[in-house]
Amino acid sequence: MSLDEFAQRIRLLALELCFRKRASHIGGAFSAADILAVLYGDVMEFDPTDTQAPSRDRLFYSKGHACTALYSALAIRGAFEAASLLSDFTADGSYFTSHVNHNLPGVELSTGSLGHALGVACGSALAAKRLRQTYSAFVVLSDGELDEGSNWESILFAAHNGLDNLVAIVDYNKIQSFGSVAEVMNLEPLADKFRVFNWETIEVDGHSLPELQQALSNAKSSRNGRPKCVIAHTVKGKGVSFMENQLAWHYKSPNESEYNAARAELGGE
Amino acid sequence: MRNTFINTLCELSEKHDDIFLLCGDLGYSVLEGFAQQFPERFLNVGIAEQNMTQVAVGLALEGFNVFTYSIGNFPTLRCMEQIRYDVCYHEANVKVVAIGAGYAYGPLGVSHHTTEDIAMLRSIPNMTVCAPADPIEAKVVAQFMASHDGPGYVRLNKAGEACAHSETQCLELSPGKLIEVAGGRDVAVLVNGAILGSVMGDLKQSGVPWAVFSVPFVGSYDIDEIKRLGQHFSRIITVEEHQLNGGFGSSIVEAFSDLYADSKIGHMPRIQRIAIPNQFIGVSGTQSYLRRAMGLVLPREIL
User: Fold this and answer.
1) Per-domain boundaries in chain B
2) Rounded Cα–Cα distance for residues A20 and A18 (Å)
3) Using the beta-carbon criterion (under 8 Å), do B59 and A125 form an inter-chain contact?
4) CB A125 to CB B81 under 8 A?
5) Which of B36, B64, B66, B259 is the most exposed place for a label (fewest CB within 10 A)?
6) Are B82 and A124 within 8 A, CB to CB?
7) In chain B, which residue's Cα lies nearest the Cα of A53?
8) Confidence at residue A269, expressed as pLDDT on a 0 to 100 scale
């Protein structure tokens, strides 16, 4: 499976979940799909049959609301069955909650309250340093969640402690819960912010698989005393024309005709 | 008790090589020994308690037994959601240690009065809450927490507490247990935390023959112990240096009420709660002044 196919399968499965279970946050799931495909399909050491392997790279997926993308990526990689994800997602008694749940195989941390995962990832990266382990800690952050002050505590901490085994990826789709990032709480100049906090920072097209591959693998292999930030410029709802850059798809779940149209655009059979 | 706790933790860390101590830029003249002896297992994370708690979880998920250390409300109320969601939901092996229980930092003002922590922390699943009364209990609590795998909260006073137990006594402390510190009859006085010293002093002065129990661990009480109390004493008084709502006294009332509701005890004892009357006190004062100003004394008829 190529990374391109992996990313499209993540989108198709996330679409299926949002349609069948009337779930929200499809826009944010689609913006993160390529990032997750590159992480789980190429950059991270990850064994779906041994999700607790000590040498694995850790992914702390901070945008827990966009869980459908993470669950789909894990299902496609085989951490659990896609069929059980489809049947059990948000079902009574299931751990497939609509914010990320650590009771599922392959999930490092429950998330859903924003501004938590980066600090936990800092602890994980610090543990690797102190225990002389070589794994990397990756974090996928949303843009809106950078409003949370706790992230900036962690951003200071990571640089001060030289956590060069930590890679934060900002899924910068420019739309948050109640409006555009620029209107609600402007983050610009975002790359400069990370740079002046002493993070090695690179901006990429978050839907270019080669750019993501290069940036993330470089960030993973570099041990230069500085934490890495990859600002991935993305499009909310990427992959389905009528969902792209639309605030409404932070909340909406597709109806049947929208589902069919989206599926066709994503090349679903 | 603060020094005893940290010194004990230091001793335990020789054997327990998983203990990791994080501090929120506090602990001057207290933590240096640990930092020097175990530099690989110590970190000052700066004045950022939310991040401290999250870092603790990240370390704990990799196998460390992490203690976070700061004053009163900062490692607790300041980061309640990190404690709830990151520590307790993940059952992470993180112990939150707060110094300055109740009015221990009295003159510093309301920012430093730690008076709602027990109510808040004891409401969270998986959390073991305790407030030792004296340095001897603090030592045993440190030993307990070093071996306990899961979330914990240790509420420490500061310094100069009178010892309620003898140094040579082999103290057994565990969640749910009550420790008898003075035998007696009619009334059982149950005390949580360092205010035990002043309760003992008041009782001694009055000469009443009441029994006194130290109850450092809040909640999950041993049913038999609660039943026994109900059988042997006609009246129970709880004392704590904490707000009335939801604190230690509430936990005792709940324990009796639940047993009564389930018909496991035949009658409800008369329980009087001595606690801060759900108020802030904005004036300066020593710990002893503020305790008395807020009515944290035994009933007037005996004093």
Assistant:
1) 2-156, 179-302
2) 6
3) no
4) no
5) B36
6) no
7) B62
8) 75
Q: What is the pLDDT of residue B303?
A: 62
Query: Nearest CA to A240 among A5, A1, A12?
Result: A12
Is residue A110 scored above 80 in pLDDT? yes
Average pLDDT value for chain B: 96
A127/B59 CB distance under 8 A? yes
The shortest CB-CB distance from A127 to any of B53, B54, B58 is to: B58
- Contact in structure between B95 and B55 (CB atoms under 8 Å): no
HSE at residue B274, side-chain half, CA atoms within 13 A, is 24
* Interface contacts (A, B; CB < 8 Å): 90
The nearest alpha carbon in chain B to A157 belongs to: B45
Question: Nearest Cβ partner of B62 from A102, A113, A131?
Answer: A131
**Is B2-156 a CATH 3.40.50.410 domain?**
no
In this predicted structure, the answer to whether residue B259 has a pLDDT above a threshold of 80 is yes
pLDDT at residue B301 greater than cutoff 80: no
Q: Which helix (H) or strand (E) is A151 found in, with range?
A: helix A149-160
Residue A172's domain comprises: 3-265
Q: Which of residues 48-87 of B touch A (CB under 8 A)?
A: 48, 50-51, 53-64, 81-82, 85-86
pLDDT digits (tens, 9 = 90+) for A189-211: 999 999 999 999 999 999 999 99
B2-156 and B179-302, same CATH topology: yes
Residues A28-47 have pLDDT tens digits of: 999 999 999 999 999 999 99
CA distance A100 to A71: 8
Yes or no, beta carbons of B89 and A156 under 8 Å apart: no
At residue B169 the predicted structure's pLDDT band, cuts being 50, 70 and 90, is: confident
Q: Cβ separation of A119 and B81 shorter than 8 Å?
A: no
Range list of β-strands (E), chain A: 58-61, 137-142, 166-172, 175-176, 179-180, 200-205, 228-233
ipTM reported for the complex, 2 dp: 0.97
| Topology at the third CATH level for domain B179-302 | Rossmann fold (3.40.50)
Comparing alpha-carbon positions, the chain B residue that sits nearest to A55 is B62
- Whole-number Å distance between alpha carbons of B4 and B7: 5
% pLDDT > 90, chain B: 92
Residues in B closer than 8 angstroms to A157, CB to CB, are: 45-46, 48, 51, 55
Per the confidence metrics, is the pTM higher than 0.80?
A: yes
Chain A contact set for B55 (CB, 8 A): 119-120, 122-123, 126, 154, 157
